[in-house]
Amino acid sequence: MHSSPWKAMAIAVVFLQLLRFSMEVELEPSLGHSDKIVRLPGQPKVGFQQFSGYVTVDNRKHKALFYYFVEAETDPASKPLVLWLNGGPGCSSLGVGAFSENGPFRPNGEVLVRNYYSWNREANMLYLETPIGVGFSYSNSSSSYEAVGDEITARDNLVFLQRWYNKFPHYRHRDLFITGESYAGHYIPQLAKLMVEFNKKQNVFNLKGIALGNPVLEFATDFNSRAEYFWSHGLISDSTYRIFTSVCNYSRYVSEYYRDSVSSSCLRVMNQVSQETSKFVDKYDVTLDVCISSVLSQSKVLNPQPQQVSERIDVCVEDKIVNYLNRKDVQKALHARLVGVRRWDVCSNILDYQLLNLEIPTITIVGSLIKAGIPVLVYSGDQDSVIPLTGSRTLVAKLAKKLELETTVPYRVWFQGKQVGGWTQVYGNILSFATIRGASHEAPFSQPERSLMLFKSFLEGKPLPEIF
């Protein structure tokens, strides 16, 4: 099937835009030093540098993305650069990723406490609040928050990184990895694809690999694996499992929900599922008690509640992170400002994301990246019922078969310390799947030590330890 001339023209226009953005990059002065954080309020003394601030990705609409950058604890000059993206779509990489998952600090009342399994032990970590309208990221034009989708987000993220390099030119040629979770299963492959295409014109990005945690890769497979997960973990009855797989499956319900057309049959099934799974079980970690931080609701869009069911996630603490990031002294230290909103929120209330983008598969893009020689790791916290490991494992195995990749590491346990950290399988030494035992949707939050071991192995391109 031949590409239409219109499609070719559209691609050409995108490249012209990106090249224009690239030329604009060179006009910006080097400002890395002005973004340096002297000290965050309540922060313990540390030996590494931190930076935060804004990068304008659209001069006309003044679209500015907020970032938080933490250099490696030791010898940052020898360590790679890692970009971290949280999902949602519309949830904060600063509040979720940095301050509750794999950043160096976690708020605790008035102070910050050290996270001794911070990923900046192994890399220079760059957290980006994306798209526009998330966290401290903003635009001077409210229209920038409307009809935002995957394509706009990928382009803005690409321009962000180009211009960020201009602030930190000594990182321009550093090995780059992109990591993230949940709806970042859309963000990351699409950003990486743009990088690979852009490098054909102008070699800018030294991309060495991507890692996707509990990612949305193929809507139907990912979502419909939820029924078997619920049933196998005892959350629903045999009869409810039958109707959840025959009368109305989860992907059909979500499709109807976002088209404002939920059928009576789907509503009946979802009400039954909700009643049995109970509002007192966190779907992002089915073994965790529910009195937990609101950051664990980061993927609200993936878990819409049935109409006529008044379920609300119990966020006993509304929350240390929200309270901390809404302090004026903290915002001043971060060089952050609130524009168009009264407070910083974990997930955006002003962003109008094109939620039907959810149905566009990104697993095919992952395949194209592997063909381009980019290593890919898909990992799953095995206590997550929202994007269960079974769906991710199925998709990775199918992709390996399609690409004719042989198994190079057979399915086996891996260790962290003297305990089993999870299970893993590798195909063609370029596509890997791993589970993190006992971990939630936000694996570094619930299993920080095991997640750090996985991250270290990923960066080094080494198989996960098979003995303790």
UniProtKB/TrEMBL annotation:
Residues 1-24 form the signal peptide. Belongs to the peptidase S10 family. It is found in: Secreted. PROSITE patterns: CARBOXYPEPT_SER_HIS (PS00560), CARBOXYPEPT_SER_SER (PS00131). It is an enzyme of class 3 (hydrolase). This is Carboxypeptidase. The lineage of its organism: Eukaryota, Viridiplantae, Streptophyta, Embryophyta, Tracheophyta. One of its GO terms (cellular component) is extracellular region. Keywords: Carboxypeptidase, Disulfide bond, Glycoprotein, Hydrolase, Protease, Secreted, Signal. Its EC number is 3.4.16.-. The keyword Protease applies. It comes from Corchorus olitorius. GO terms for molecular function: serine-type carboxypeptidase activity. InterPro entries: AB_hydrolase_fold (IPR029058), Peptidase_S10 (IPR001563), Ser_caboxypep_his_AS (IPR033124), Ser_caboxypep_ser_AS (IPR018202). One of its GO terms (biological process) is proteolysis. Probable carboxypeptidase.
